[in-house]
């Protein structure tokens, strides 16, 4: 816990945990204010957890959530009201502390000279000169000039962002590249299914972000507030402005937990879990081990979602564990799918149906989770079949694995880069933006009709890198992305159905069928998933080594 003191009565910090509250009380703090919305990060405790721990430690707590990079006048007013209500000294926190420092700066600007505010925040490690510019400019951040300028700016340091930075550096080492991301930890998210199945330990899926940023690439540890592509500018937390020659947008997507009524209140308790969160995947395995009888629900929301097979992977690995310990006969497995098919590429369905039968799982199509009552252990689903009127059903459960609804991040949805559905609007072959020629996108946030998987990003990064280098040289796009995605469907411990496909569901196997037939469960595919893919991710993909990822070449001119 790194506390930054801004004034005698006010300090800020990055995300805190429930375990930090007794120490804060010991240090003399009387209250905390949370400026981070629930569900923003994969390893983030809810405000309810923090509030309970604060109460036990004798501290007041207030919730004034501000969306990443989006500090509005109403937020400043709400922050001011919270300051009036609580005792001092107090600690405000968000992901990095920047939002809290920004709110304080705007609030204090009504009664303190701006040089005094800038000095106080600078001493605490926060640069609020952008706030000063915004105030001086009547509430709007000017973008005609910037605080920093780079050849290439990459928004997001997930699988796509770090991979494309490494691929660009490998192609053109002299490029001045910046990666923007506020996270301290980088996660190998494909490993969380294995954590929930008792195969991996959670800590093996996490590494310090600083150790993964490619050598020679600048890391701007901040959140993005807005894009102004007409001025080649990105506005960051604290109203700082970064200018670019070319921009790559790959911040991933947002897990929309709050879209399901009651879900946030019960996650990690009452038998409700999800492998889509780092801190909850171990709870999945704990529940699987502890369940001796009853009903287990596994939910899948409407598309698009990242790793479309993950909801049923959790079901198969759980069913396999119960099969092995002899409890399966006493457990009712129900797969609640908002869609109408088990898997979107028909070639893989027969093998999956075999395992549905093995685990005696019931498939409930067109069932979309809309509400959860954790204490009552009930889940409510909207049923929307094409041939019938919409209906609702409430189902009891003893254990429930939830895949949350998923949307583009807020700062993407409201930006000029987004299509009508909120995703970054790109040409699906070149991954170049359809409107802005010096912008590209990859990973889960863009609107190409491919599966949102890490394997897709592995193929997309070299495509984007090739096309940016070509653009810098004044040439047309040279690389084509074929929609490749991979979903290793863990149907039992020791066997996987390795789904590999491109646009339109066309099969794209990486290996000859005599070595590995992806339409059938195999131990070879399990070995690939368990043993080979993690080091390939950490030591190859994130290092710009493009094993089995060379992009196709564009051989004819495109309009």
Give a structural overview.
With 559 residues, the chain is of the alpha/beta class. It has three domains: 133 residues, Protein-Tyrosine Phosphatase, Chain A; 252 residues, FAD/NAD(P)-binding domain (3-Layer(bba) Sandwich), CATH 3.50.50; 150 residues, FAD/NAD(P)-binding domain (3-Layer(bba) Sandwich), CATH 3.50.50. The protein has 15 helices and 28 strands. Strands 6, 7, 10, 11, 12, 13 and 24 form a seven-stranded mixed β-sheet that branches. Helix 2 links the parallel strand 3 and strand 4. Helix 3 crosses helix 4 and helix 7 runs parallel beside helix 14. The model has no long low-confidence stretch (mean pLDDT 94).
Mean pLDDT reading: 94
Oligomerization status of the protein chains: single chain
Radius of gyration over alpha carbons?
A: 24 Å
The biggest sheet amounts to: 7 strands, mixed
Low-confidence stretches: none
As a percent range, the share of helical residues equals 25-40%
Compute the number of structural domains: 3
Quick one: CATH class of the largest domain? Alpha Beta
